[in-house]
């Protein structure tokens, strides 16, 4: 593993240490984590990157836990052919120069969690077309442009959680035909657009826990026959339509715990041959739903409830 260390015991001191990996199977990692770096240090970071890449190709760069507010252009120059992971979480970033990620053609993983973005646009995504995993949780963004992911067609994993009531346009995910996992937890969402996922036919995991959803539309999961797990726990769902999950022929786990569900129609899980785990814990059920024969784990708080008729 390649390690870059910045030592800032004294503010003027900047030390970059770099040790090439001894194993070709290990990623070459350059890390500047948790060192209190500010925007004025970007030039020194860039110099360290240039010096280090001359010794061995850099696979991942960790810049998390600092005090950066912007990401300028030019810092990552020359590592585009090898850099696959960039980690900028837990800073104070409000803006990324639209050319900051220019020529990072191989970048697959980008972490921007817990920064200070209030707006975000698609401009800087156009230079990282191979991106497969994006984390953008815990930012105070209240709306997203409908075409935000127009250049991100290879995205497979997307985290957009821990935000305050963001407006999620119906077409936000329309270009993400390769999306496999989407996490929209703890966003205070009262509803989502009926067609939000209608072009994401490879989706396997959908997480909508800890929101304010009061119902499940029959259209939300239409055509999503690759979905394996859905988590809608800790919402305000009071009832289940018979066709809510009807297209989820591959689903194995459905978590509906900690909602406000009282009754469940017996046929709500019909046509789900792979379903094996259903959680109704923390709901005020007045009767016990009858699980399909495929279900192995079926949790309710009170096992003595009479069956729902």
Q: What would you note in describing this structure?
A:
The chain is mainly beta. It has one helix and 14 strands. It has two domains: 1-179, Leucine-rich repeat, LRR (right-handed beta-alpha superhelix); 180-309, Ribonuclease Inhibitor (Leucine-rich repeat, LRR (right-handed beta-alpha superhelix), Alpha-Beta Horseshoe), CATH 3.80.10.10. The longest helix is centred in the N-terminal third of the chain and has 12 residues, at 42-53. It has one helix at residues 42-53, and strands spanning 29-31, 60-62, 70-71, 85-87, 95-96, 109-111, 133-135, 157-159, 181-183, 205-207, 229-231, 253-255, 277-279, 297-299. The strands form two sheets. It has a twelve-stranded parallel β-sheet with strand order 1-2-4-6-7-8-9-10-11-12-13-14, with no helix packed on it. A two-stranded parallel sheet has the order 3-5.
């Amino acid at each position: 593993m390649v390690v870059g260390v910045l030592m800032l015991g004294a503010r003027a001191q900047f030390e970059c240490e770099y040790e090439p990996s001894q194993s070709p199977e290990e990623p070459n990692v350059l890390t500047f984590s948790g060192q209190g770096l500010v925007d004025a240090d970007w030039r020194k970071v860039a110099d360290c990157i240039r010096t280090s890449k001359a010794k061995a190709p850099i696979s991942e760069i960790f810049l998390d836990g600092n005090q950066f507010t912007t990401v300028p252009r030019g810092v990552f120059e020359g590592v585009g052919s090898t850099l696959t992971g960039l980690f900028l979480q837990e800073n104070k970033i409000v803006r990324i120069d639209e050319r900051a990620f220019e020529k990072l053609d191989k970048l697959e993983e980008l972490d921007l969690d817990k920064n200070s973005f209030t707006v975000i646009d698609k401009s800087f995504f156009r230079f990282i077309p191979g991106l497969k995993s994006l984390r953008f949780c815990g930012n105070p963004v209240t709306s997203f442009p409908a075409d935000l992911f127009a250049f991100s067609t290879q995205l497979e994993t997307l985290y957009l959680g821990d935000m305050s009531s963001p407006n999620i346009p119906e077409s936000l995910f329309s270009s993400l035909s390769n999306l496999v996992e989407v996490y929209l937890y703890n966003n205070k969402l009262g509803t989502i657009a009926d067609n939000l996922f209608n072009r994401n036919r490879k989706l396997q995991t959908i997480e909508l826990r800890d929101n304010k959803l009061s119902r499940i539309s029959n259209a939300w999961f239409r055509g999503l026959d690759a979905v394996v797990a859905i988590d809608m726990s800790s919402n305000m769902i009071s009832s289940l339509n018979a066709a809510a999950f009807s297209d989820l022929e591959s689903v194995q786990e459905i978590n509906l715990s900690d909602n406000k569900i009282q009754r469940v129609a017996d046929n709500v899980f019909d046509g789900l041959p792979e379903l094996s785990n259903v959680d109704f814990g923390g709901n005020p059920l007045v009767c016990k739903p009858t699980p399909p024969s495929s279900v192995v784990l079926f949790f309710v708080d009170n096992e003595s409830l009479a069956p729902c008729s």
